[in-house]
Amino acid sequence: MSLLFSKTSLGPLALQNRLVMAPLTRNRATGNVPNELMAQYYAQRASAGLIISEGTSPSRNGLGYPRIPGAFSAAQVAGWKRVTEAVHAQGAKMFLQLMHCGRIAHPLNLPADARVLGPSAVAAAGEMYTDAEGMKPNAMPQAMTEADIKATVEEFVQAAKNAVAAGFDGIELHGANGYLLEQFIRPNSNQRTDRYGGSIENRARFVLEVADAVIKAIGKDKVGIRLSPFGVFNDMPVYAAMEADYTYLARELNAHGLAYVHLVDHSPMGAPPVPESIKAMFRSVFKRTLILSGGYDAGRAESDLAAGKCDLIAVGRPFLANPDLVARWKTGAAVNAPDFNTFYTPGPKGYIDYPALG
């Protein structure tokens, strides 16, 4: 009996299998509003147990990339409602990933009245694509004041409420991949000297305040978080105290009672591997659902579930290229290869036209 394809639960939610479609930025939300094309894309992939949406901004300030969706306007809520209805009709559950890009941004990708914000005025190395002028260096962020922090927590709360109104089963806080929540956790991007900087207790404060506030608004069974310890994406270098810092975070997240922790290992894409000791630490310290992701195939997914290393397995690129991934993995059928050239381009090509079996 395969564990991967067996039914399970996530808190009170019944899942049709243990396979999760990982959040995948696809840049198809023209005008930052979810559309019919997106509803079709997610519905095609709704044989997963759980779908986690692409990174979605809780704020005008968080729209760092071109054509990413938001969850802060009535039009966005209406657009997402079409998506969740299409997904639920196929049996999957769906969480909305809330991603505030923070300093990974360029003003050309933001509305005119928005600001590039970060924990400190420290620009990230690297460049950002803009539709208007191509590649640009990441912008210098404005260091957030305590008033900015309070306002941003409120934006997360409102976006979480909007997600529930749009029919999502919950939300995932994006505390990984170098975006705003992780920018506070990491000492290179957080050089504050107030109660949000310095010690890990201070650097984790913003993340935990956001988690607390959204739990209060929509309930702990509806709130998960994604973390990338040892991830180096978006100028997040590895540092000596990382294991100790994430152990503190695991304990705190467990105490706050979130529905799940989603750990991402970017080593298949060239980052340092997440040490097995970190994955094992999260498994023992965090008592609710643990999702692992990073370069899984069906065999390794089955093996890690059988070994009790996690409860659910998330995969990204295999789902991107195979709308019927569950059927393919179940039957051992060949899989489509992803087309890297169409990952982030507008329109249906490389998005909803990957072939399904038979």
Offer a few descriptive terms.
358 residues, alpha/beta, 8-stranded parallel β-barrel, two-stranded antiparallel ribbon, 11 helices, globular
Description:
The structure is a single chain. The protein is α/β, with parallel strands linked by helices. Helix content is 32%, strand content 15%. It contains eleven helices and 14 strands. The strands form four sheets. Strands 3-4-5-10-11-12-13-14 form an eight-stranded parallel beta barrel, surrounded by four helices. Helix 1 packs parallel to helix 2 (74-88), helix 3 (146-165) packs parallel to helix 6 (205-218) and helix 7 (242-256) runs parallel beside helix 8 (276-285). The protein is globular, with a radius of gyration of 19 Å. The mean pLDDT is 97.
List the helices and strands and how they pair.
Layout: E1 8-10, E2 13-15, E3 19-21, H1 36-44, E4 50-52, H2 74-88, E5 93-98, E6 117-118, E7 127-130, E8 134-137, E9 142-143, H3 146-165, E10 170-175, H4 180-185, H5 200-203, H6 205-218, E11 223-227, H7 242-256, E12 260-264, H8 276-285, E13 289-293, H9 298-306, E14 312-315, H10 317-321, H11 325-331
Helix pairs in contact: 1-2, 3-6, 7-8
